[in-house]
Design goal:
With about 160 residues, the chain is α+β, with helices and mostly antiparallel strands. Helix 5 (about 85-100) links the parallel strand 1 (about 70-75) and strand 2. It contains 8 helices and 4 strands. The N and C termini lie far apart (about 35 Å).
Length: about 160
């Protein structure tokens, strides 16, 4: 991935650049997005990914995903590689971000506690089939079948 060879600001503005945006518009958008994810451009714009913490790199990825203002954002295991303390901080920031950008965000995770903490609606799949969709209460009080009951039991032992 060539993204590691570019500073944060270029990373975030890459899609805008590829879409042919005017450089001034791209700079403005990058500045807005870096502020949104708590990485002010003056402090972080010229840094390279190797100079950032894992949580900061995750924030850069979120900012880049928002660059073209998509209606829906797909995030595949976005917090899986973070240590527990950083992960908790990023979860809190993600909730604030989700409220402020008002986008549909689909987060793929194998961590049910994370799904319950971050999601408004949770979909549980098994071998590509949708087994149950609902909120935490529905999963806990009305599991669709024995698979859902066992999945919750085995994945929420410590939650």
């Amino acid at each position: 991935d060539q993204a590691v060879d570019h500073p944060v600001a270029r990373n975030v503005g890459l899609l805008c650049e590829l879409e042919g945006w005017d450089p001034a518009r791209t700079r403005t958008r990058v500045g807005e997005l870096l502020e949104l994810v708590n990485l002010p451009i003056a402090e972080f714009g010229a840094r390279f990914p190797k100079e950032l913490s894992g949580g900061q790199r995750q924030r850069v990825g979120v900012a880049r995903a928002l660059a073209l203002d998509p209606a829906t954002i797909l995030m595949d295991e976005p917090f899986g590689a973070l240590d527990p303390i950083t992960r908790e901080q990023i979860h809190a920031e993600f909730k604030q971000l989700k409220a402020s950008v008002k986008k549909t965000m689909v987060v793929v995770t194998h961590d049910m506690a994370e799904a319950f903490a971050l999601g408004d609606r949770i979909a549980l799949m098994d071998h590509g089939k949708l087994i149950q969709i609902g909120d935490e209460e529905a999963f806990r009080t009305r599991p669709a079948n024995a698979f859902v009951e066992e999945f919750l039991r085995s994945h929420l032992r410590h939650a």
